[in-house]
Design brief:
The structure holds 2 protein chains of 2 kinds.
Chain A (H helix, E strand, L loop, with lengths): L1 H5 L6 H28 L6 H14 L1 H4 L23 H10 L21 H14 L8 H4 L6 H11 L1 H4 L6 E2 L5 E2 L7 H10 L14 H17 L12 H23 L5
Antiparallel strand pairs in A: 1-2
Helix pairs in contact in A: 3-6, 5-6, 5-10, 8-11, 10-11
Chain B lengths: L1 H4 L9 H13 L1 H9 L2 E2 L7 H20 L8 E3 L11 E3 H11 L4 H28 L8 H22 L5 H16 L4 H9 L8 H31 L17 E2 H26 L5 H4 L18 H9 L3 E2 L2 E2 L1 E4 L2 E4 H29 L15 H20 L2 H7 L4 H40 L1 E8 L5 E6 L3 H8 L19 H14 L8 H9 L4 H17 L2
Antiparallel strand pairs in B: 1-4, 2-3, 5-6, 7-8, 9-10
The chains are: A mainly alpha, B mainly alpha.
């Protein structure tokens, strides 16, 4: 300390102090900047994105969701063609458009999955436009989707507690009331699974970060990808539908083969 | 014993002969082999389902014994450390962990588990099909009524064995199933809660149920099944096997192959065929992936939770039952006790009706027909139209409930509304059996008419011939005697009206019997009489004349009962 205090009046001291201050400030800014970037990597949209998105929206979505996405006027029977999209966030758009559910194929209890209608760039522009209308869940970052950091066992527990009652313990999907259904989760990207949890598309409830933490969501995605990749250890999974498909195979396959053999064995009947 | 003394002077020439003689002179085995070895069994594919059931049971015993070496029926809590990654570190019962170990860490364990489960499904299925065969062919009639009852007991035991086994792995699916059983037990008025507490050793799920079910599953139930099988087969030997009617087959003989050597070889080979089919299923198709369902925890439930197929009809009935109709609730509170008819009715009533009818049917039919003779010749189902109709009604009723157990999968896979599936099945629950009865009975009668046509006129050959005077006729080929026999030789009972008793009075019960007899036999197609046959064949060279003559004969026969 003595050496430092002796040189406090050195002509270069002020410059050194200035450099130090700049270095610390710059360093802090750089750290804060990368943190922000990680979270907001895909959520920063340019004004051009928003503008392009609005054009796409007016041309493709406004018929049901209304100009400015305020939702359609209720029709003859009080049904609304499309809800307001203010505040649904970019994640909702990325899920609905990215999985091909929107634009909707036809009116019905639930939007069906179909081939995507917009490419990634257009989806991003649409998301940018809807995100600009009001604050909502953003598209998840790479960090929360990194399944190498997830725990499949924990994810399995969360999945069985929160998801299996609709999606089936093996994620094979299940029925809901009046033609609605929880889809099978095979082949769904981690991004879309995450977005579905935070936005609650169709008849799904929202699982916000207070219900299931982002780490928990990552664990669930890890679990789903693990069971999908491992296949079925016991042979053909029969749709993972449980005892119904097993019973069906036994009656139509197993018993039929055995009846074939009984006929063969008693062919030369007396 | 004469069997042992008579062989004392016999000196065998070969070493095999000496061993055989040694055993025989001490056990008298040759008498038994002679008796059993000469037993005749008739050949027909539909007679083999009982065998399939027996063989699946043997497979169950073998594979089940293997599983007991590794299964630990403890509900103590543990953390999984085995090789299945998505469950590592998860808290679970020892029973579930040991089932996972059987599946992933015991060599051949998963295959044996799957063999056991597929064999269980096949066991109950073959028992059911065997019973349907016995019912539709009338093989339950005297002297086999008691054996029919033993068969019914075997069916119930098979369900019990299946359900206790289904509940052992302590996975989410089995726990959900047990919870439903617990709910049904608790719905029984007054005693339900006590029975449930007794069964589970306290509040559901407790820590005792897997151990208790295990003892039932590996000891009591299989022992009772074995006992019943022994009785069943003993009675089969005493009664001798039934046979389909045919030339040379009478009520007093059995036409077929002897056990030794033909039938023993066939049956022995068939065992390996059944084992092979089960092994192929087990090797290629996954069954009950307990690792998918996770350990049991009372809070979660999985979509698509169903029981194995044989319990499905009860589950389906529960799904069909409405909780309220309009403003009428099916749940009442009486003096502080809840009476849950919405659970009690569907869980117990359809199964109760099915099994009561099943067990009492031989006596019902005996009472209605007043037929107390011994029957060793079977009915072709078409020749007993009302029995066939009632059987089909029962099958359809069962199938409606069965389908209801998979209502959610019907909804998702056919893209229809789950609610609509339930509504339609509710309608079919009541209408299905009625429509089934009428249609099956009419089909049976129509087939009888067709048989009659063929017996009288022969088969249509499709060959058109032009007669010298210009008329076109189709040539009918008369049947040979062998095939004709089957079409003309069957019993066709007639209506037996209510009979007055010794005092000349007709009791209410007798009136009911008379009415039922009319329901059974009012519509009938009379079998071809020898006279008709002769008349038809005499005119064989003049088909045109034959046609009209036979038609009038048929008409009078059909209408004039």
């Amino acid at each position: 300390m003595k050496a430092l205090s002796q040189r406090r009046r050195h002509p270069l001291a002020a410059i050194a102090l200035l450099l130090l201050g700049l270095l610390v400030t710059g360093g802090l800014y750089a750290v804060a900047g990368t943190v922000n970037e990680a979270k907001a990597q895909t959520t920063t949209y340019s004004a051009q994105d928003v503008e392009q998105g609005e054009k796409l929206f007016v041309a493709n979505c406004a018929t049901c969701h209304g100009i400015n996405a305020v939702g359609a006027e209720p029709g003859a029977h009080g049904f609304q063609a499309g809800p307001s999209l203010i505040g649904v966030g970019a994640a909702a758009v990325d899920f609905q458009v990215g999985t091909g559910r929107m634009p909707m194929q036809m009116s019905g209890p639930q939007a069906q999955v179909k081939p995507k209608q917009f490419d990634e760039e257009q989806t991003r522009q649409l998301a940018a436009y809807v995100a600009s209308l009001g604050a909502g869940p953003a598209v998840p970052s790479e960090e929360v989707l990194d399944t190498t950091k997830g725990n499949a066992a924990k994810g399995g527990e969360l999945f069985r507690t929160n998801c299996a009652m609709c999606h089936n313990a093996a994620a094979a999907g299940g029925a809901l009331t009046r033609g609605k259904f929880a889809p099978a989760l095979g082949g769904v990207t981690g991004e879309h699974i995450y977005e579905a949890m935070v936005t609650g598309p169709q008849n799904m409830p929202v699982f916000n970060d207070a219900n299931i933490s982002p780490e928990g969501k990552r664990d669930i995605i890890t679990f789903l990808h693990t069971i999908e990749e491992q296949g079925s250890p016991g042979g053909a999974a029969l749709g993972s539908l449980g005892p119904v498909s097993e019973g069906l195979l036994l009656w139509t396959g197993g018993l039929a083969v055995i009846i074939g053999f009984t006929i063969w064995l008693t062919q030369r009947s007396s | 014993m004469s069997a042992t003394s008579s062989t004392e002077n016999y000196v065998p020439k070969t070493s095999v002969g000496r061993i055989a003689n040694f055993v025989d002179s001490r056990t008298g085995g040759s008498a038994m082999v002679k008796e059993l070895g000469r037993k005749i069994f008739p050949d027909h594919w539909s007679f083999m389902f009982g065998e399939v059931a027996l063989y699946s049971f043997v497979i169950l015993l073998l594979s089940g014994t293997f599983l007991t070496f590794f299964f630990n029926p403890s509900m103590a809590e543990t953390h999984y450390t085995g090789s299945y990654v998505p469950l590592q570190g998860v808290e679970m019962s020892v029973a579930y962990a040991s089932t996972l170990d059987i599946s992933f860490d015991v060599r051949g364990g998963l295959f044996m588990r799957q063999v056991h489960h597929w064999a269980a499904l096949l066991f109950v299925a073959s028992v059911s099909v065997h019973m349907l065969r016995v019912f539709f062919t009338g093989a339950f009639r005297r002297p086999r009524e008691l054996n029919w009852v033993v068969g019914g007991v075997l069916l119930i035991l098979a369900l019990a064995a299946g359900f206790t086994g289904y509940s052992l792995p302590d996975d989410l699916l089995s726990g959900n199933g047990l919870r439903i059983i617990d709910g049904v037990i608790k719905a029984i008025p007054l005693v339900g809660t006590y029975i449930s507490m007794l069964l589970f050793g306290g509040e559901f799920p407790g820590t005792a149920i897997v151990g208790r079910l295990y003892v039932l599953h590996i000891l009591l139930v299989p022992a009772m099944i074995l006992l019943m099988i022994a009785i069943h087969l003993f009675m089969l030997i005493v009664h001798k096997h039934t046979q389909y009617p045919g030339p040379g087959r009478t009520e007093n003989n059995v036409v077929g192959y002897p056990v030794g050597p033909v039938y023993a070889a066939k049956a022995g080979g068939f065992f390996f065929i059944v084992f092979g089919v089960v092994a192929l299923l087990a090797a290629n198709f996954q069954i009950l992936p307990i690792w998918d369902y996770g350990p049991y925890d009372p809070s979660p439930i999985s979509a698509g939770t169903q029981p194995d197929w044989y319990i499905g009809f009860v589950d389906g009935a529960l799904r069909l039952m409405p909780g309220v109709i309009g403003n009428f609730p099916f749940e009442f509170v009486i003096l502080g006790h809840t009476l849950s008819l919405n659970v009690l009715l569907p869980a117990l009533v359809p199964a109760g009706i099915l099994f009561t009818l099943l067990f009492t049917w031989p006596w019902i039919e005996r009472w209605v027909t007043r037929d107390d003779r011994e029957h060793h010749l079977l009915d072709r189902p078409r020749n007993a139209p009302t029995r066939t109709g009632i059987g089909v009604a029962g099958v359809i009723w069962y199938c409606v409930m069965w389908a209801a157990a998979s209502s959610d999968l019907i909804a998702t896979h056919f893209h229809v509304s789950l609610n609509d599936v339930t509504y339609w099945l509710r309608v079919l629950f009541f209408l299905g059996p009625i429509v089934g009865y009428i249609v099956a009975k009419r089909i049976a009668l129509a087939l009888q008419r067709k048989d009659r046509e063929i017996a009288l006129h022969g088969r249509e050959t499709g060959r058109i011939v032009r007669l010298p005077h210009g008329e076109f006729i189709e040539v009918h080929e008369p049947l040979d005697d062998y095939h004709q026999f089957r079409l003309v030789n069957f019993e066709s009972p007639e209506v037996l009206p209510a009979q007055p008793d010794a005092n000349g009075r007709i009791s209410g019960k007798e009136k009911l019997r008379g009415r039922l007899s009319r329901l059974f036999f009012e519509d009938r197609v009379a079998p071809v009489t020898p006279a008709e046959l002769e008349a038809a064949h005499e005119h064989g060279h003049h088909p045109a004349i034959e046609e009209t003559a036979a038609e009038t004969a048929a008409e009078t026969q059909v209408t004039g009962r």
